[in-house]
Amino acid sequence: MVANLYRGRLAEDGKMAGLRARPPLSVGFILADNFTLSAFSLFVDFLRLAADEGDRSRRILCRWTVMSSKQTAARASCGVQVTRDSGFLDPRNFDYIVVVGGLLHAGPQIDDETNAYLAAAAREGVTLVGLCTGGFILCRAGLMKGRRVCVSWYSYQDFLSEFPDHRVIADRMFFVDGNRITCSGGAGTADLASFLIERHLGRAIAQKARHILLLDRVRAGSEAQPHPPAGEEVVGDERVRRALLLMEQHVADPLPIAEIAARLSISPRQLERLFQSVMGVRPATHYRLLRLRYARWLLDHTDLSITEIALDSGFADCAHFSRKFKALHGFTPTDARTRERAPLADDALDLPSLPPPHAHLAAMRIFE
Fold first, then answer.
1. Residues 149/166, Cβ–Cβ less than 8 Å
2. Which phi and psi angles does 96 have, rounded to 5°?
3. Which of 123, 204, 211, 347 has the fewest CB neighbours in a 10 Å radius?
4. What b/e readout covers 297-315, taking b as 16+ CB neighbours within 10 angstroms?
């Protein structure tokens, strides 16, 4: 019923608007409840800087419209509110309709009328873009069937739990699958915006926007996300999954195992037993391996100094880090950079997952 009512409104809106000639790049935004402000603002500022010469912000080469079924302002997860420019316009007015997601577990993100609009846009062949958790919204609307969905490593387990039959990517910045584009969010939003501007307006204009925003280089959608997760294996126990997520979120500032247990409302002894049962190792051992694996990733894919990597991986000093690294890999962090070595089996585009516990029993004993 909502969809039928909406089709009629599209025809009427098209006549009223006269289907005005649009600029080379036109983008419609839909902001979910509790949307991520950074994802929206980065994308809009790229459009603003690409739309005009100088700093006058005229919408000459680009046009963007914030649409909503509600007249009330959309509230970001940080509390900032953004008012809409209009209700839903004919989707044929846009090259892209961008759905900006946000918090996953704070109630419904969009309403039925918005779902109907997205479905109508899909029928018209308009490219739909999911930013941050916007990919979840497109999946819930049934608009990603047979498509691959790019999500942040942070949201990977949530996606698997809700959409076990979808093909998910958590190892790159964004992914283009025909007229569906999904983006992991964060700084990856800038890379996607730059990609689309270059596609429509040329490299020079995209480069100008990047330079003004002090972004020194553009990353391709296929580049790895900056923070590889602990692993992509499906862990059945909810408490262990939550513990793993806490570990991933606190790589540089490791939490005591007792604190992780307290946050899960269980005792440290219970957490030890759970990890031994589910993961085959103690939680402290897994945590340290996670940090060392992250350190190896930083060594292979960044220009950070070894001291910086040690600190970013949660080690108090470079010497301690080097000892643990060599105990696991058989060579030092310096060796990893100065000697020619074969690449890891799990490369940047297929994010590393921790190997089965039994494969590293000898190495793990070093950490006990």
1. yes
2. -140, 140
3. 204
4. bbbbeeeeebeebbbbbbb
Note the pLDDT tens digit of each residue in 260-272.
Answer: 999 889 999 999 9
Residue 85's alpha-carbon distances to 23, 74, 114, in angstroms, are: 17, 11, 15
Whose tokens are 């479905």? That residue is 119
- Supply φ then ψ for residue 67, to 5 degrees: -115, 150
Torsion angle of C-alpha atoms 153, 183, 149, 22, degrees rounded to 10: 170
**DSSP summary character for residue 87:** S
Tokens standing for 242?
């939550």
DSSP secondary structure, 148-180, as one string: EEE--GGGHHHHHHH-TTSEEE-SSSEEEETTE
For the chain, the straight-line distance linking the first and the last C-alpha, in angstroms and rounded, comes to 63
Q: For residue range 26-47, what is the model confidence (pLDDT) as tens digits?
A: 999 999 999 999 999 999 999 9
Distances (CA, A) of 138 to 34, 44, 104, 181, 243: 16, 20, 13, 10, 29
| Distance from C-alpha of 157 to C-alpha of 10, rounded to nearest angstrom | 38
Q: Please tell me the distance from the alpha carbon of residue 123 to that of residue 170, in angstroms, as a whole number.
A: 28
Listed in sequence order, the residues at least 6 apart from 95 whose beta carbon sits closer than 8 Å to its beta carbon are 25, 26, 27, 126, 127, 200
Look at the block and give the residue holding tokens 């387990």: 157
DSSP assigned state of 357:
G
In whole angstroms, give the CA distance from residue 57 to residue 36: 23
CA distance 324 to 283: 17
What are the angstrom distances between the C-alpha of 232 and each of 140, 171, 248, 326, 337? Answer: 22, 10, 12, 25, 27
- Whether the model pTM is above 0.90: no
Q: How far apart are CA 246 and CA 260, in angstroms?
A: 7
